[in-house]
Amino acid sequence: MTTIGYIRVSSNKQTLEHQRFEIENFVKREDIKIDEWIEEKISSRKALEKRKLGELLNNLQENDILICCEISRLGRSLLEVMKILETCLNKNCQVWTIKENYRLGNDIQSKVLAFAFGLAAEIERNLISQRTKSSLANIKATGKKLGRPFNAETKKLKLAKNQIRIQRLLAKGVSKSQIARIFGVQRATLRKYILRLSSQ
């Protein structure tokens, strides 16, 4: 069994010391010790697999305990937090938080709380979906077109204005990568444009 202290701040302007102090005081009161510290300065907007927490979750073993100051340190949304808790509980690990005083493990109380989290996450997911659909419907009702604006500044129109030149470069055997560099666009953007030309 390994007890892990997890600390995260969103930016380099914030410090990790306060959270570490909170956890150290907590484990002292509980008469346990931290075997491993995981610290990171990264926004929770970053994908989980790009954070140290993602690697930690992959390496968790049965009966490990993950301790953090508050549950918001784990993720930016209820949906993400629920996913993290589910991973821990499926591995028979415990998640302890100091601020909320959660002791989530494999007991019935934890399962009830996890169910409540899951229900709240499902409600949040539905609300987000409804808000998105409502916003799109309102935009359509005003007559505005959805998607990336197609104006003189877009890459697509930039390519369209140089259609003849692009066709000549292709005929000369110039690579798509080189053509993309000439016009300052991504190769994928050029490839889609060429496919559209060929279908006309």
Question: Keywords for this structure?
Answer:
200 residues, five-stranded mixed beta sheet, 5 strands, alpha/beta
Describe this structure as you would to a colleague:
The chain has 200 residues and is α/β, with parallel strands linked by helices. Helix content is 53%, strand content 12%. It is built from eight helices and five strands; from the N terminus they run βαβαβαββααααα. The chain has helices spanning 17-30, 52-59, 78-90, 108-141, 155-161, 163-171, 176-183, 187-199; strands spanning 3-9, 36-41, 65-68, 94-97, 102-104. A five-stranded mixed sheet has the order 2-1-3-4-5, with helices on both faces. Strand 4 and strand 5 (102-104) form a beta hairpin. The longest helix has 34 residues, at 108-141. The protein starts with a strand and ends with a helix. The mean pLDDT is 81.
What are the SSEs and their pairings?
Elements: E1 3-9, H1 17-30, E2 36-41, H2 52-59, E3 65-68, H3 78-90, E4 94-97, E5 102-104, H4 108-141, H5 155-161, H6 163-171, H7 176-183, H8 187-199
Parallel strand pairs: 1-2, 1-3, 3-4
Antiparallel strand pairs: 4-5
Helix pairs in contact: 3-4, 7-8
Low-confidence residue ranges: none
Total strands: the figure is 5
Helicity, as a percent range: 40-55%
N/C terminus separation:
64 Å
Side-by-side strand order of the widest sheet: 2-1-3-4-5
Q: What is the number of helical segments per DSSP (H or I, 4+ residues)? A: 8
Largest sheet: 5 strands, mixed
Mean pLDDT: 81
**Beta-strand content estimate:** 5-15%
Overall outline: elongated
